[in-house]
Amino acid sequence: MPTHNCDLILVADDDPTSRRLLVRTLTNAGFQCQESGDGLETLKLVQADVPCLLLLDFDMPGLNGAEVLKQLRASNDPAAAQLPAIMLTGHGGEESEVRCLEAGANDFVTKPINPAVLRARIETQLRLRSMRDQLQQQNDELEAFRANTERDLAAARLTQQSLIPQKPPVLANDWDVAAVYRPVIQVGGDIYGWLRMADGRTLFWIADATGHGASAALLTTLAKLLFHHGSVEHKEPADIMQAVNTDFRSIFGARSFMTAMCVALDPKTGSAGVVGAGHPPLLIARFDGTTEAIRSSSPPLGLLDKSDFAETQIELGAGDAFLLYTDGLFGAEQVYAVDGTPVDLAKTANRTALTAHALLARIIEQACSANGEGPLPDDLAAVAVKRREDVA
């Protein structure tokens, strides 16, 4: 922020009599004054100690008032460049006023000087300077807050990235798994994962917490811990989801919630149990080109102390695939079929020859192109799991 002597007014006038009268008037009004008799001396005094305001005579020998102001406004010192300056001129009329303002003056006073008018103009400029300094201070504080927030988000991003699986799970060679995560900003409220259950099945899960940024990222961190904890103590996906709901609500009460869905897949048989809590429908793309949707049977996690988490059984044959995703994949304008299937998403998923990676890439491409040139409106996460076509 520019620094200046807040108690000092510099009076620059080559006429000693006029200068003394100005200093006496300002001193009687409670101001401290410093005197200068020419333009070069004025520049040196400002460079040594920037005053709070400059009273500058327009007509001075050598460097006149306009030339002094031109150099001050071009100064590398912000305090000098922004120094409030009131030009003193003996020329009346609009042309003189324009010359003063074009020279870079904040205001002007015509000679002979009316002390009351001069004091009023000085007080006005000092108030404006004070307001400008306060605004600059607020801008500096906002910039510091922004920088701190950016650092916090960067740290949260690294933390969240460490929680999101970087490699697909090790299943039998019959399965192909792909996943993607794209937050709106550095971090977001979506997360997914997979873990091996005690009975040999693999639990694929996905969650979407309320909000964005660091607070949402903290909820996703908690979600991963809760799903892992629930899978250790329970064997069925409905019981795991209930445990996650209980723990989540015990921490936040009803102040926060998140949607979630999980699929407990037996990779040997292709049987799977699906449980959803307020989450978008699980999409199943069959090898014959048809699609199915498994809707959530319970409200989002954290809303109720105890919900009826019903498990839906599905069978995945050769070439079949399922897709877990968050609502950022299709947005609020998506059209739904009667069974709850996102129509555009189902059309894209209806590509039987695609691998899980290619299927997911096609879906992401559609989601991005549908949003035009702008950024995605919400966090996006998806997991595609496909059984290979050559399964016996």
Automatic annotation (TrEMBL):
MF term (GO), any: phosphatase activity
Keywords of this entry: Coiled coil, Hydrolase, Phosphoprotein
Membrane-crossing segments per the record: none
Residues modified to 4-aspartylphosphate: D57
Coiled coil: 121-152
Protein origin, superkingdom: Bacteria
Xref: Pfam families: Response_reg, SpoIIE
InterPro entries the record matches: Bact_Sigma-Reg, CheY-like_superfamily, PPM-type-like_dom_sf, PPM-type_phosphatase-like_dom, Sig_transdc_resp-reg_receiver
GO terms, biological process: phosphorelay signal transduction system
Chain ranges of the Response regulatory domain: 8-126
PANTHER family recorded: HAMP DOMAIN-CONTAINING PROTEIN, STAGE II SPORULATION PROTEIN E-RELATED
Protein name as annotated: Serine phosphatase RsbU, regulator of sigma subunit
Organism: uncultured Chthoniobacterales bacterium
The organism's taxonomic lineage, starting at the top: Bacteria, Pseudomonadati, Verrucomicrobiota, Spartobacteria, Chthoniobacterales
